[in-house]
Amino acid sequence: MELPGGVDGLVDTSDLYEAGMTSFGSVQLMLALEEAFDIEFPERMLNRRLFSSIASITAALEELQAEKVGA
């Protein structure tokens, strides 16, 4: 996924939507992450806030990976 403004100036807490990510882009990102990490985002996590920054995405992935290991 590419952002119109590029990614060079982004930090973990940058707002990805302000950087140009769209709702469609967030769905594409979610599907790519589910495939790459062999996880599924539960309905409780499917919100704009989760995909608003690299930091929030990372936290969600860490939580899902921990649940997967503990299962």
Automatic annotation (TrEMBL):
SUPFAM superfamilies: ACP-like (SSF47336). Transmembrane segments: none annotated. InterPro entries: ACP-like_sf, PP-bd_ACP. Pfam families: PP-binding (PF00550). Residues 1-65 form the Carrier domain. NCBIfam families: PRK07081.1. This is Phosphopantetheine binding protein. It comes from Phreatobacter oligotrophus.
